């Protein structure tokens, strides 16, 4: 068993898996639910989700989308209408067979995703080209039965958003697919501070029923990939299955082209695994429930002044739009510092009686410069200076995390041209390799290394050659990113 | 069959039920889902829910609550731990018996409400008085099987929030129960423009498992009551069933006192039924997706100027925090005016080429003064004057709706002292009557008149006397509000 740190959490540097499993509970992000594979998102974790939600939702609205709500229960027969779709989702379905004290005539599936039920409604709502495009998103819970559940990463029930759009032409639908793909990558970069590899999935990794699937793939601290959002061009597959058709401008009946795209509570797992360290969580400031924690120091009567000032400063920060918190619990400063470090708060501020007298605070960053004893360097800032400086410091801190993640990713990514190099590379990160494009060869690589093709990067250079595994001619016209994945 | 208006909707004044059923679809608030009793909330209706959500959530945060997310699936055995609770909810449960291709060892209930699963988690999280109070809310979907579903009012699945709190003492828990009860009433008044009757439920109408239930009851346009939010003091019932106990300051083991409180998408039904009229929806401005619609008038080239100016004005309004929309669809002004009237937009603005030249707009209110031909009076406002006036006009309009609803309610409420008067009164509104408090007498009244005790109003005067139905001595020390209810 790995040695636990003072925090009661196995260090990340020793065992990423144990670190993750212990940290999500210890930091009170989540807990296990009673039913197998379900999770409780605790207030600290849910606040991360709310911050993610509001900032992502704003991007959806800015790109012309509106929200709606579709039913949780889907008649079983609907799933069967799109052949690939049902094949992909059948093993994961939860089914309601009894309700209101009776057995149902037709079982109801708890939605694993909503293409089918939304397809049915779009068929009703769309009759003319004037009804298009339809640009709808929904924030919802979905259920996919998990045999090996992991909090945030793979849970039987999870929260997500699913966009579903219908268009008059392939070009328009593809444009939408790529637009939302870019929205996800931009969001991951500018909100979660994760630089994503953007690319198209190989046929074997596509969404069940899609013509093309695009994904954003983040690199975690152990070099594994985590798929953090997907955008699908569904062609006319669901339009055929659900009769989503319209009269075009020439009065001819056409099938609509549809898309779907989703991001889920998995993204919280990505944030934990992309930024964390031995001391615990490292939260990007735009998703941090608490951006600045102020710890007043002093005992008894001596504590009064610092505490009052701390609350005054927190109120000023709140007015400037900063999420500030005063920790005036009855506990030692050392305990508090460790606790907020574990919880990943970006900026930590100390304020003792002597600081109060001197009119300043001491501020340390969760990640930043260290002194020669390996401790965080503290900046001394006058009160007004401090309040004025925080918003900018948070932005700088965001860039620091993003840059750190980018450097880490680039240092753990490499082109490889033979299978020995491939095996060594996927053990530590992303391998960029030429591949023949055959499913059996993908399976073979997976069996040998546990790595799978994550995506064909959109920004990859044109290149042809021999498959890294079987030597056949390469497909795709460029290298594919392979990695072990969550 | 009732005569339909020009709008294709049966007038409210002829048949409230037909009017409601037709209007929710016609105004594109909602649609029926494929599975029995489920609904699709369409973007226009969902926007109302989002506005409700954000304003209610702010009130929860302001009173110290945090959000979290608990699982959809509850092991069947949990429901059975609180005897009254399982008795109350059993007939309405939807049950998952199969998942992941197998029959489950223990069936999972789709949550009808979350006291049980949250109780289980609180038991885990609470051990000392220092862990209390816990003040958590969740926004979620719940399922209660409905035999006679009605969009927004009674659906198999609905959206709601459910607050669940745990406290060290009865006093604290009761204070919380009443605080949230007041938050609901204040929200209904100041956001939905509905003056609620606030009161405690009689024992027969209590939440299954509660010690005391408080509700807000709105009067609809047909004189019926609609229960719009409830707040429950649960005593130690769930604490006993789920072992939510803590060490108090004297190191003695105590049971926690818990509360729960909820408001749902039913509130959208209340808004429709409390304010609507023969022309369609009448939305209170703080819940209206569109607060001001600007209709540019003119054909061909003549339309260009008004349209450009309309978008300019809408942008200025948006900057002032007003939800403004320009209707530049290719349709006649008459069609547009009817459409926005049906959709309940508070302020409607016309802008034609001559108005543009004169530098003004014509503004009409959805509800307001009428000219001698029965048409809405239009105000002429200069462009700047118009932009500056709108926020205040919306507030005045809110007060107008609230006052109108209050007058309507008061005119349709009366004290009654004999059963003939009682029957006549509940046919048109609320009857305030003395009652013996016996369940069988409540049942008898319901069988005779369809009316039920809605609540014992908190602001009722002390009064004793004979039961309006059976003549026995009155209970409760004051009059009870009876009404037919949704
Ligand atoms: Zn190959
Ligand atoms: Zn009686």
Structure description:
2 copies of one chain form a homodimer. With 486 residues, chain A is α+β, with helices and mostly antiparallel strands. Chain A folds into 3 domains: 260 residues, BirA Bifunctional Protein, domain 2, CATH 3.30.930; 106 residues, 3-Layer(aba) Sandwich (Rossmann fold), CATH 3.40.50.800; 71 residues, C-terminal domain of ProRS (Translation Initiation Factor IF3), CATH 3.30.110. Chain A has 14 helices and 23 strands. Chain A has an 11-stranded mixed β-sheet. The mean pLDDT of chain A is 96. At the A-B interface, β2, α2, β3, β4 and β5 of A face β2, α2, β3, β4 and β5 of B. β5 of chain A pairs antiparallel with β5 of chain B, so a sheet runs across the interface. The complex binds zinc ion (ZN) (2 copies). Chains A, B: This is Proline--tRNA ligase.
Secondary structure elements and pairings:
The structure is a homodimer of 486-residue chains.
Chain A: H1 16-26, E1 30-32, E2 39-41, H2 43-62, E3 66-67, E4 73-75, H3 76-79, H4 83-89, E5 94-99, E6 102-110, H5 115-125, E7 134-143, E8 157-167, H6 170-190, E9 197-200, E10 212-219, E11 225-233, H7 237-242, E12 245-247, E13 253-255, E14 257-264, H8 266-275, E15 292-296, H9 304-319, E16 324-326, H10 333-342, E17 347-351, H11 353-358, E18 360-365, E19 379-382, H12 383-411, E20 413-415, H13 419-426, E21 430-433, H14 439-449, E22 452-457, E23 480-483
Parallel strand pairs in A: 3-7, 15-16, 15-17, 20-21
Antiparallel strand pairs in A: 1-2, 4-6, 5-6, 7-8, 8-14, 9-10, 9-22, 10-11, 11-14, 12-13, 17-18, 18-19, 21-23, 22-23
Helix pairs in contact in A: 2-6
């Amino acid at each position: 068993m790995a040695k636990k740190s003072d925090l009661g959490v196995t260090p990340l540097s020793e065992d990423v898996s144990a670190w993750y499993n212990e940290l999500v509970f210890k930091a009170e992000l989540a807990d296990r639910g009673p039913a197998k594979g379900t999770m409780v998102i605790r207030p600290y974790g849910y606040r991360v989700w709310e911050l993610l939600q509001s900032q992502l939702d704003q991007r959806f609205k800015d790109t012309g989308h509106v929200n709606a709500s579709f039913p949780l229960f889907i008649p079983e027969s609907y799933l069967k209408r799109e052949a690939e779709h049902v094949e992909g989702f059948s093993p994961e379905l939860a089914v309601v067979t009894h309700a209101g004290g009776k057995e149902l005539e037709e079982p109801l599936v708890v939605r694993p995703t909503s293409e089918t039920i939304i397809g049915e409604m779009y068929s009703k709502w769309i009759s003319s080209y004037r009804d298009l495009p339809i640009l709808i998103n929904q924030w919802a819970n979905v259920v996919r039965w998990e045999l090996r559940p992991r909090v945030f990463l793979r849970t039987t029930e999870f929260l997500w958003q699913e966009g579903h759009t219908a268009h008059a032409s392939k070009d328009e639908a593809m444009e939408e697919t790529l637009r939302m793909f870019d929205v996800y990558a931009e969001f991951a970069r500018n909100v979660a501070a994760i630089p994503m590899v953007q690319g198209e999935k190989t046929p074997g990794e596509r969404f069940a029923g899609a013509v093309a699937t695009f994904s954003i793939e983040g690199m975690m601290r152990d070099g594994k990939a985590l798929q953090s959002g997907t955008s699908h061009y569904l062609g006319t597959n669901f339009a055929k299955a659900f009769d989503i058709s319209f009269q075009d401008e020439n009065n001819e009946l056409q099938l609509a082209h549809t898309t779907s795209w989703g991001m889920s509570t998995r993204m919280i797992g990505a944030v934990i695994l992309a930024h964390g360290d031995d001391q615990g969580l490292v939260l990007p400031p735009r998703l941090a429930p608490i951006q600045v924690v102020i710890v007043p120091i002093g005992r008894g009567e001596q504590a009064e002044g610092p505490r009052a000032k701390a609350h005054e400063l927190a109120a000023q920060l709140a007015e400037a739009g900063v999420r500030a918190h005063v920790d005036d619990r009855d506990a030692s400063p050392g305990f508090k510092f460790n606790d907020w470090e574990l919880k990943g708060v970006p900026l930590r501020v100390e304020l003792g009686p002597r600081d109060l007298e001197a009119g300043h605070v001491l501020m340390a960053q969760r990640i930043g410069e260290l002194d020669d004893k390996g401790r965080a360097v503290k900046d001394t800032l006058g009160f007004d200076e401090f309040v004025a400086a925080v918003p900018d410091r948070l932005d700088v801190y965001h860039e620091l995390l993003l840059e750190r993640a980018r450097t880490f990713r680039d240092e753990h990514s490499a082109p490889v041209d033979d299978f020995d190099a491939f095996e060594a590379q996927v053990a530590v990160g992303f391998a960029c390799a030429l591949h023949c494009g055959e499913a059996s060869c993908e399976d073979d690589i997976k069996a040998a290394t546990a790595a799978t093709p994550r995506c064909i990067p959109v920004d990859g250079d044109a290149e042809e050659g021999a498959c890294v595994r079987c030597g056949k001619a390469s497909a795709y016209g460029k290298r594919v990113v392979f990695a072990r994945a969550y």
